[in-house]
Amino acid sequence: MRHRERWHALGFISPALAGLTVFTALPVALAVVMSLFDWPIFGDREFIGLGNYRALLTDTPDFWPALRNSVLFTVLYVPTNLAVALGLALLLGPRLHGRAVFRVLFFIPVVTPMVANALVWKLVLQPQGLLNGLSTAWLGITLPNFLVDRNWAMIAIVVMSVWAGMGYNMLVLTAALEQLPTSVLEAARMDGAQGWRLLIRVTLPLISPAIFFAAVMTIIGSLQVFAQPQLLTGGGPGTSTIPLVMFIYDTGFTFQDLGLAAAAAWLLFVLIIGITVLQFRAQRRWVHYEH
Q: What's the confidence (pLDDT) of residue 280?
């Protein structure tokens, strides 16, 4: 009976295992192999060992600006996303009438394709767009061209990304807030905790596991940003908004150097894993799993 149950279980999970093998395991293994070769799309391949990694770190001038842009986007995007999501979660509490409608409205950008979001924001932010038109008509102020100005391009991408992604973390934090033990909150209020003191000393520690989850997932996603800069600015002006994933894409499919692109992808993987490990180690100091 146990032997038959094992075969039945294997039969049920075999489609998922096949998909995981074909679309994840094999491409990952191939990427490892490709990173060790001079691998053009057309032509002969040549084994060069760690040559692609050395070339990235020493002889590829666009790699470091792309890495810097990814880190800068992450530093600007993650705290802003979490702060806005937490603020919305607190505002959409049980005392607010129609909160379900507001949750749906704030979550719509999350399920809307990123291409559609980016195109709408491009129409809003361009010189002939809605934002500049309203500011000129109402305030008599001509705004800068956010998408081609070095000082504003990355900020514009961050603002658009926060608008498109804050709804997910809002729902995560809202669910955590709704699970708070009312006895603890009532005891804190009886002891005189109100307002910001109640939020910082009681509420945030109680929902710290949800904040930790949201932070980890948001950082991982932000380090892999691609669609927003690709569609809004094309990586410009210059290389000021080219993230690492866009650099990998251009290296592999525009310049047709798959080996160098695979090496850059593995360096990004190491960066993400390293930051995630640091987060899990740091959680012991601020994440509280017991109420």
A: 93
Max CA distance (Å), the chain: 80
pTM for this entry: 0.91
Residues near 252 by beta carbon (within 8 Å), at least 6 away in sequence = 258, 260, 261, 262
Residue among 63, 74, 88, 73 nearest 276 (CA): 74
| Cβ-contact 236, 153 below 8 angstroms | yes
Q: Give me the helix-helix angle, 153-178 and 114-125, nearest 10°.
A: 130
* Euclidean distance between CA atoms 283 and 100, whole angstroms: 32
Write out pLDDT tens, residues 101-132. 888 899 999 999 999 999 999 989 888 888 88
Domains and CATH numbers, the chain: 61-286 (1.10.3720.10)
- Which stretches of the chain are assigned E, i.e. beta strand? 37-38, 46-47
CA distance 57 to 95: 54
